Please model this.
Amino acid sequence: MDSADVILVADVGKSRCRVELRQGVEVLGSADQQGFPGLGMDNGARLAFELLADTASMLPRGLPGSLRGIGAAVAGVEASAANSHGLAVLLSERFKVPAAVLSDATAAQLGALDGAPGTVLIVGTGAVAFRFDAAGTLHRADGWGPLLGDRGSGRWIGQQGLQAALQAHDGGPATSLLGATAALVDSPAQLPAWLAESDNPARTMARFTPAVLKEAEAGDAVAHGIVDEACRLLVNTVSLASGDTKKVALLGGVVKSEFFGGLLHNALASAGIEVVAALGDGMDGAALAANRRGLLQERYIHRDGTA
Model:
């Protein structure tokens, strides 16, 4: 493999923008910064382009002149095909190489299963299940954002925990989650203002998820009830997306918790759903899209530039 095989890979999410220079499986350099609202905005393509280009300029050794392609997993691709293609054009024109733009969820499915058909459940701040069948058709469940969906997600768990803490503060069911809020604010009464001041309330509520998991593992009944319900909701999401396949790979920060991951594995097994090992993540999926054309998921990848 020579220097001409170097590609730029990006994960441009709502919480974080991450870029890597890759040569095969080797990461030559990386950089990251805050994310952006998503491609669905009127100027989403320009915002994503400027953020990605700015993050790429932070790479320790810069970009090589022999860059061969770009793969970018971007939040909000499904909201605007025009903006997604526009971003691919901007990237291709700026870096003078072919560019592939795909949703973060599609990239996660690609990376987890190396382009093969199957189902992936992603549980981070949000929650979504993605399945591509053998014909390359997408089947999706949830991922509808913090106001209308993302049930069982990091945001959902954190929000339920904060609500339970405030109910305890009001004299409701006692829970150690009330004391855990001291890591966030001086008084539980300050929680509404603390949340209102956030520029990303969903991500802010998800910050409380580790506390909910910790208290649940320690035996707090209220916290454990929240975690059990999250597992039930996620099993339902997987069931809706997976159809008759009954297999799923798990990705996302929340499932990296050994405690929560174990509970979710058990809940899925009880529903007759087998957990298979994820082969990679969204960055690996973006790299695959940059390196390979004619993928099963090709119709969901926005490209510009020549092969």
Q: What stands out?
A: The mean pLDDT is 91. Residues 221-242 form the longest helix (22 residues). The chain has twelve helices and eleven strands. Residues 107 and 285 are 4 Å apart (CA to CA).
